[in-house]
Design brief:
Chain A is an alpha+beta fold. Chain A is 52% helix and 18% strand. A six-stranded mixed β-sheet of chain A has the order 15-14-11-18-16-17, sandwiched between helices. In chain A, strands 4-5-3-6 form a four-stranded antiparallel β-sheet, sandwiched between helices. The longest helix of chain A has 23 residues. Chain B is α+β, with helices and mostly antiparallel strands. The chains are: A alpha+beta, B alpha+beta.
Chain lengths: 535, 110
């Protein structure tokens, strides 16, 4: 192979997406801030995913259309800093490709160079040791290699090697990386994109597994009105006809058809209203090993029932809160929260989760508490998409902030006043979070090792140690000024924290700060030993 | 211990320079002239593009920026906010910092 055509590019980008999807957690962990909520990998993945989803929506006749579609998708789907940079790289890359139908190594190098140039253009003072540096290194190497390496596979492989080498040097270029002991996250993401692209071109693992494909199909049908009621999955042996022919034949019974061959076996997935007819058809042309039929209608109803709680809001508006941990869910329910969206640090709810909760709310006006800074965006998107409700978002960064805000709601007062009051309330609350570090790093002059217990005051890491209770005490000591001026401390302990330890801690706090009222509740949250609000 | 006094001007410099380092920012424009004169500020005068309001221990910073065309403006603005507030907080030790971004222009793509 010495050039790339439309199909080649398609394989490249699908391979890239698949690889980045698998490895995004590795990228997420490279975030310089060491709590378990890094998201560079996820941001880059979602940016690229929107671009490829666009490709699936519009079929492209030529490379020009392909480039236009992918660039538009990346622009709209751009998330986070790295996502924006990725969209710029793609824009520059496809600018060069423009009217060509096949791209040789030389043209590819030129396109990489322009991608790097356009990406650099958008920043006046580029910081080296980032995704930009890695991109530039790969483009420069490509320029050098192009005249002497006509074989595309080897050409690309050498570019990736150069990129990885530059990536390994990023800590020497950027001191924050060195301090944290990591390479640049965006740069790593870029390398995964190219590695995946290369495997895609080689025909390695581009195809998603059958399970991944059907999971995707089935999850998008949730929440919509169903045209076909039954989800049918059949596992069969010795298929007598061509899979494509079978696929064609199945279209008369339903949609969402996937036929995948896995060695001897063939896996078939169809949504239809007459599953028995499908099974009958297949018995004629293959040996059925297993067949599973599920009524999606019932699943859907149950799903909606679960999402729509029976709690009648005690306010003239509906309240939705994101929560993780049994204790917190109970607290929110008792406070009159109508819908609880499951989620938190490690599992961010999707826009669709919010939308479903919002649309199924009983009242016209809806207030949403995202309870995590990474979740606010999804809530905002859902707000925009909601057609039936008037939605307002109170941008809470954690669960403990939202509790006093909900307590302060007054059923007699107007919606706007309640909203204003909630926002004022969250601005006056300080919070403490005690968790563990997911890797070695340096932060605020603290040398933090993996699994060290770390304490944050208003999202800033200020203490580390080996004992969660000691961390709480030292944070209170560090922020003595604030704590002494406050009147109320609410402690929510996590699912891995023993009650005896909590009691001992409370005694110590009361000894040190005699004027403060301390309240203890079981939060049941994962990852965080303690979440504390200070009012 | 004695007092530390940080002038609004110093905060404006820190915020302005850090905004200029943000990805997607083409430059800052002076906030006082509103729409009459639109030119990109030189690095030395960067504080003219930053409006700093101090209220007790709270600082509110308004940044008047021009952004690179063909990019997702909302994401760039979010990056500016987090980068600038992190910088100002860590360099000055002020805890309550609110950063607002006012996009005064988008630079045309070439």
């Amino acid at each position: 192979m010495n050039s790339l055509d439309l199909n080649g590019f398609d394989s490249f980008f699908r391979g890239a997406l698949s690889n980045l999807g698998k490895k995004r957690d590795i990228v997420n962990k490279l975030n310089v801030f060491p709590v378990p909520d890094g998201d560079t990998g996820t941001n880059m993945y979602l940016t690229l995913k929107t671009a490829i989803d666009e490709l699936d929506k519009k079929s492209s006749k030529n490379l020009k259309e392909f480039g236009k579609t992918i660039c538009e998708g990346a622009l709209i789907g751009g998330r986070g800093n790295s996502g924006v940079i990725l969209s710029q790289i793609l824009k520059g890359f496809f600018e060069v490709i423009d009217n060509y139908e096949t791209i040789n190594a030389y043209k590819f190098a030129e396109a990489l160079m322009n991608g790097s140039k356009i990406a650099y253009q958008a920043v006046i003072k580029p910081v080296e040791g980032t995704i930009l540096t890695v991109m530039k290194a790969m483009a420069t190497k490509a320029m050098l290699l192009a005249p002497g390496e006509p074989d595309f596979d080897k050409f690309l492989e050498k570019i990736v090697t150069e990129g990885s080498f530059t990536l390994s040097k990023t800590p020497e270029m950027l001191s924050v990386l060195k301090e944290a002991g990591v390479v640049d996250a965006g740069g790593q993401g870029l390398i995964f994109i190219f590695e995946g692209g290369l495997s895609g071109l080689r025909g390695e693992e581009i195809a998603k597994t059958f399970e991944e494909v059907i999971e995707e199909i089935d999850s998008t049908t949730l929440g919509e009105e169903l045209k076909y009621k039954f989800d049918t999955v059949i596992l069969a042996q010795s298929l007598e006809c061509d899979p494509e022919v079978l696929k064609e034949k199945l279209t008369e019974f339903g949609d969402s058809i996937v036929v995948a061959q896995a060695g001897e076996l063939v896996k078939i997935h169809v949504h239809s209203n007459e599953p028995y007819r499908i099974i009958e058809q297949i018995t004629h042309i293959a040996k059925i090993k297993e067949a599973r039929v599920e009524n999606m209608q019932l699943e859907q109803e149950e799903f909606l029932k679960k999402k729509t709680s029976t709690v009648e809001s005690r306010f003239p508006f509906s309240v939705i809160a994101v929560a993780q941990g049994e204790g917190f869910k109970e607290i929110f329910k008792s406070l009159g929260v109508e819908n609880i969206v499951e989620g938190g640090q490690t599992m961010n709810p999707s826009i669709n989760d919010f939308l479903l909760s919002i649309e199924s709310s009983k009242k016209e006006n809806v207030i949403v508490f995202p309870n995590n800074s990474n979740v606010i965006l999804a809530a905002q998107e859902a707000k925009k998409m909601s057609k039936m409700k008037s939605v307002e978002i109170v941008p809470t960064a954690n669960m403990v902030q939202s509790i006093p805000a909900i307590l302060g709601f007054n059923a007699e007062d107007a919606f706007e006043n309640n909203l204003k009051h909630a926002i004022e309330t969250i601005n006056n609350i300080h919070s403490i979070a005690v968790t563990y570090s997911i890797r070695d790093t340096k932060m605020n002059g603290l040398e933090i090792a993996k699994d060290d217990i770390i304490g944050m005051f208003d999202d800033e890491i200020l203490a580390k140690g080996s004992n969660p209770e000691d961390i709480v005490l030292s944070l209170l000591e560090i922020k003595k000024d604030i704590v002494e001026g406050a009147g109320f401390l609410a402690i929510y302990y996590g699912k891995d924290t023993a009650k005896e330890k909590v009691d001992a801690l409370v005694e110590k706090i009361q000894g040190q700060f005699s004027n403060i009222e301390v309240d203890v509740t079981y939060g049941g949250q994962p990852f965080y030993f303690y979440l504390i609000s200070i009012e | 211990m004695g007092k530390i006094i940080i002038s609004q001007n110093a905060i404006a410099k820190i915020a302005g320079l850090s905004a200029m380092e943000s990805y997607g920012v083409v430059g800052l424009v002076p906030y006082k002239f509103k729409d009459k004169i639109r030119y990109l500020l030189d690095k030395k005068a960067i504080d003219k593009g930053v409006d700093v309001k101090v209220d007790g221990r709270n600082v509110e910073i308004d940044l008047y920026v021009v952004i690179q065309g063909g990019t997702k403006v909302s994401e760039i603005a979010k990056t500016i906010i987090s980068q600038v507030s992190y910088r100002v907080k860590s360099l000055t030790g002020i805890e309550n910092v609110e950063v607002n971004v006012i996009v005064k222009g988008v630079k045309r793509e070439e």
